[in-house]
Amino acid sequence: MTDDAPALPDQLAEIREDFLALTESERLQLLLEFSRELPPLPARYADSPALLEKVEECQSPVHAFAEVDGDVVHFYATAPEEAPTTRGFASILAQGLSGLTTREVLDVPEDFPLQLGLTRAVSALRLNGMAGMLTRAKRQVVEQLAAA
Amino acid sequence: MPAPLDPTPRLQEYAHPERLVTTEWLAAHRDDPGLVVVESDEDVLLYETGHIPGAVKVDWHTDLLLPVERDYLDGRGFADLLGSRGIARDTTIVLYGDKNNWWAAYTAWVFTLFGHEDVRLLDGGRNLWVAEGRELTTDAPAPTPVDYPVVERDDTTFRAFREDVLDHLGKGPLVDIRSPQEFTGERLHIPDYPEEGVLRGGHIPTAHNVPWATAVAEDGTYKPRAELEAIYQQGGLGITDDDRVVTYCRIGERSSHTWFALHFLLGIPDVRNYDGSWTEWGNAVRVPIAAGAEPGEAPAR
Known about the structure:
CATH topology of chain A: Sufe protein. Chain: A
GO molecular function (chain B): thiosulfate-cyanide sulfurtransferase activity
Structural class of chain A: mainly alpha
Keywords (chain B): Repeat, Transferase
Catalytic activity (chain B): thiosulfate + hydrogen cyanide = thiocyanate + sulfite + 2 H(+)
Oligomer: heterodimer
Order of helices and strands of chain A: HHHEEEHHHH
CATH class of the largest domain in chain B: Alpha Beta
Strand content of chain B: 5-15%
Protein name (chain B): Sulfurtransferase
CATH class of chain A: Alpha Beta
Domain Rhodanese (chain B): 31-138, 168-290
C-alpha cells in the first residue's frame, strides 16, 4: 500500500492529536478554549473588515482571509462573540495554517475538519463551516500566487 | 404541576398567552418548582459560554436529530432526553435561544410533536435577556433524572412531509419563510461550497414569501397580535381559521418560529411545519418548482 498524500504539517497534526486524545464532551471544551484564543485582527484588517471575505457556509457571520507573505501564509478571521463555535473553527485554522508555506496549505486535506473527532459532538453540518473556511483559504492562496 | 402564567398585559391579547413568557417574568420564576428552563441554540457552544442560571441545554443537531437518518429521535429517545434534563411530563418548559429563538422555536415544535403540553417560549430569546443585562452563569446544572413516559411522536398534526405538501398544493396557504433571494431562486449557488447544498432554486408553487423576521419587533419579541394579523390574516396573506396551513424554510427551523406565531399566537388550529423544507424539495426529483417573485400555480391534478 502506498500513500502519496503529504504528511499533515506538525502544527495541524498536534491540534488533531489534542482533540482525539479527549472524550467527545471534552473536545467541545477544547473547541471552546480555541474560540477564546482567536487572535484579534491586525490593525489593517480591523480598520477595514471589508478586506476580509465573508464565509457564507458558516451560519454565523464570519470574515476570514488567508494572506500570502513571500511564501508564508497567515490566516486571519473574525466572528462575533455569540458565535463561539465559528470562532473556534476560525481559531483552529488561524493556529493551524499560519506560518505554513503556500504548498503546505494547499496540501491540507479537505476533510481535515472531519478528522478532529467532532462529528458527533458538533455535527457534520456545522463542520461544513470550517470546511468552507479552509476551502476559501486555499483559493485565496492560489489567487495571490497567480497574481504575484 | 404547571408553573403560573405570565400575567403581562401585552401577552394576553394573543390566542394562547400561556405560550409566551417575558424576560421579567422568567427572572422572577426561573426557580419555581415544576419549571425547567431549556436553552436551544444554533451555536453548539454558546450555552457553555454562559446561560440562564439553572437552564439545561438541548441541541437540535446532537440531541433532537438522529445521527444517521434524517428524522427526529423516537419516543424512547425523547423520554431519555427529557428525563435526563429533569423534565417530567407535567413540567413547564420555558425555551430560549440565540438567533431570535429560531432553534428554541424548533425545539418547541419537536416537543409539541411528542405532545408535551406546557411548552413556552421566552419572548425575545437569549438576545433580549443578554441585552437587558440579566444574569448568566457558566455553572453547569445537575438535574436529578426523572422518569418521562415513552410517548409516540405524532407526525400528522403539526408535521408535513413532502407527499403532504404535494397534496396540499392548491388547497391551502403555503408560507415560505426564507429570504426573498432564496424564494425567487436568484440565490442558490454558494461559491466553494464543499458538501451540502441544493440543486434547484425557487420555491414550492403557490407559496407566499413572508421572511420569518417579519413577525418580530426590533427587540426580537413577537409583534403585537394586531400586527401579526395584518401580516398573515386579513389585509395580508388572508389566512383564516378554517385554512390548513403549511410553513417551510431551508431546514425547518425559521419556519418553526412562524409556525409558533401562526398556531399559538394567532390561534390558527391547523398549521403544519414541513421540516424537509427546501433542502429536500430543491433536491427532489419530479416535484414542481416556481421561480421568480410570483407564487405560481398549483400543478394540474
